[in-house]
Amino acid sequence: MRQRPPTNLEEKLLILVVDDEPDVEVLFRQQFRRDLRAGRFAMEFAQSAPMALKRITDAAGASLILILSDINMPGMSGLELLPKAKALRPDVPIIMITAYGDAETKRQAVERGAEALLTKPIDFGDAP
Q: So what's the pLDDT on residue 1?
């Protein structure tokens, strides 16, 4: 049985950003414009946790290397998304983003499998 060659999507390193605020996509595309233009990685954006879960499932063969997710979103929160995303892709680190960087939020995020917690507005110089 012949294996099919990888598609362009499967060859790219992929970062998934999950946030219901549309300006977040503009911010990330601006911040990483040189890397995106050079093809070092691709970024995809999901405006909700259910959209993110679909994208994570669809990316099973892609080189998904990082998920960045807001915590406060309508419907399913980022904290609810976290264990579901980890169950689908335990190999992919997830960094949570919140406007509220209190100790309890950080504890909950880490307990559910987050690698780190970034506080908005994001200082990209301090990002892990």
A: 40
Render the chain in DSSP notation, one character per residue: -PPPPPPHHHHSEEEEEE-S-HHHHHHHHHHTHHHHHHTS-EEEEESSHHHHHHHHHHTTTSEEEEEEEES--SSS-HHHHHHHHHHH-TTS-EEEEES---HHHHHHHHHTT-SEEEESSP-TTT--
pTM: 0.85
The pLDDT assigned to 58 comes to 87
| pLDDT tens, residue by residue, 17-29 | 999 998 999 999 9
CA atoms within 13 A on the CB side of 3: 3
Token pair of 118 as six digits: 């970034």
The structural domains of the chain, ordered by start, are 8-119 (3.40.50.2300)
Closest C-alpha to 81, from 69, 90, 93, 92 = 69
